[in-house]
Design goal:
It is globular, with a radius of gyration of 14 Å. The protein has four helices and three strands; from the N terminus they run ααβααββ. The N terminus is likely disordered. The protein has about 90 residues and is α+β, with helices and mostly antiparallel strands.
């Protein structure tokens, strides 16, 4: 990776975390939890963060609003979604 590519990657990372910085504490906690765990379901996030499921749902919505979280359907259970952090 060249110096300019590294600088662009760092700038993208800072932009993503800048967007998170203005969010509520619950959204920051969910983002940090997703940073340390590759991908989790909403119920796993509630378990890890000790937040109520409704608060986790609100935090995920806020994180999706600023485009720092990706979600996909779980292959094991199509009723569930798996969330991952999209800040590189």
């Amino acid at each position: 990776m060249s110096t300019s590519e590294t600088a662009q990657a760092d700038a993208a990372t800072e932009d993503g975390w800048d967007a998170v910085r203005d969010l509520p504490p619950s959204a920051k906690l969910v983002a940090k939890t997703l940073e340390y765990n590759d991908a989790l379901t909403q119920s796993e996030l509630a378990e890890e963060t000790l937040l109520p499921p409704r608060t986790v749902r609100y935090a995920l919505n806020r994180l999706e609003d600023v485009d720092v979280v990706d979600s996909r359907f779980s292959f094991a259970d199509a009723r569930k979604r798996i969330y991952s952090l999209d800040i590189e």
